Amino acid sequence: MSAPSSAGPVGAPFRSRFFWNLLASYAALLVVTGVLVAWQVQSRLSARLTGELEQTLESDCRVLTPLATDALRGRERPGLEDELRRLEQATSQRTTVVAADGRVLVDSHEDARHMDDHSSRPEIVAARTQPFGVVTRHSHTVDMDMLYVAQRVEDAGELIGFVRVAMPIERIRAQLALARRSVLVGTAAGVLVAFGMGLFLSRYFTRPIVAMKRTAEELLAGRYESRVAVERRDELGLLGETLNALGAETTRRIAELSQEDAQLRAVLASMIEGVVAVDEQDRVAFINEAARELLELGGRPPEGLPLWSLAPIRELEELLDHARATNGHEVREVELFRGGKERVFQAHASPFQGGGEAGFVLVLHDISELRRLERVRRDFVANVSHELKTPLTSIQGFVETLLSGALHDEANNVRFLKTIEANVKRITSLVSDLLSLARIESGQLVINSVPVDWREVLDPVLRLREPALTAKGLVLEVRGREKPLRVRGDREAMTQVLDNLVDNAIQYTPSQGRIVVRLAAQDGRGTVAVEDSGIGIPSADLDRIFERFYRVDKARSRAAGGTGLGLSIVKNLVVRMDGEVRVASVEGKGSTFTVLLPLA
Fold it and tell me: Which CATH number among 2.40.50, 1.10.260, 1.10.287, 1.10.357 corresponds to the domain 371-439?
């Protein structure tokens, strides 16, 4: 493994888009903050200076009120106008005394005799109802913006006029301009210092990110030995350690996957079933030797070629189309006739997805020999059934003969009739079971899986077998029938299964014995268990008990009238309903047969 990569060249962060985005965001934040601070300082300073000037002018109005009172009452004071002019020259404050009717009596800047009526001036109007009238406006007399403060003058509670003091707001603007320059200089200096710090911090945070990005790109390119040099213990350092751990884990898993891939290919190559993997375009991605032989592909390399160009089999194409439409597992039997020889195989199609690619796996199982044996078996059952029809007809004819005259032979007639009747029942039962088994195994029996309550099946079966139970003095107990037990199955098939199990229990349970039927739900399946206290089954025979014609005690089975096909029929029917049948037995103590079907 190579040494961890460092953070890279010094200029690497400056080539990072993340660096510039971070720096630009920081700079924008600084600029916006600086502008907001400058605007806030400017606003507060302007308000403060204006407020201070208003307070000054209000104080001056109070000081000038006695002088204004004398002027308004006509008490002449020599030199008042000159005194006000000197005051204006010293303080830049313009002073005006206005009578209650709006006439200007004294003004420090203009000749009062030539001045207009001031009763409509905003500050005068405001001072009529308030202690002071404060207005900032443009003065046409002096042609500049002025701050006016007017105070009403009363004598003995009577309004006699107003004293007004005005000052140009240029002083405020000059002070604000000076303050604005100071704020801007300070803000700019702060922004520059902060920008330098932001440049340093952006580079400080960007360097490890650039290094991790480069390492991730190398891992993506397949250089799994690449690592990040971790120089810090913060979150970025932890992220670098996590990336290093990811690289190590990726290397380990790729090694494991490579080993598993080799093992899987070895296993698939040695399988007797044919395995073909195709992609979405049905191009062959993998094929083992068994599939080559089954599809008769010869020695040409099929990988990358369409499956239909190699093996143009319509059933396989339809199977893959159906599996692709349902995106699920599909099964179909395929028959091939090549070189005058029939070959049958079962094809399974299953979707798979891995490495970002999807496709299907075909598993081909050669069942040619199995199908041949099944045909032989079906033919045998059919032939046996038809052959048994002839003796049945003869026996029935013999019975008719006895009934028409030979019944009067007191020595033999009853014995003959009982023997014939027993054989007729046995042969008829055998034929019926053979035909049922042939229908089940050949697929001719249609199983309609619908929700069925086991109790609805149990009651008719028990009523049918009640005479046999009574005849042997058997005690029957049913447990779990208080609640519904709905499963998915075929009612007729379920009836045949339960009838066979109950009949089997009656046949192999001695008189005065006990039979228990249990209904229960277990692990998503509904179970029916038939337990008897009969002769039981030896452990050596348990694995073969469901084979056709297999009997543990052949002599006793025939005496009981059994055909040896009942349990085989039970198992086949249960399997067709996607269920399971189990048996547990202790020789000499009894047996328990359990049927499990999916809950509805």
Answer: 1.10.287
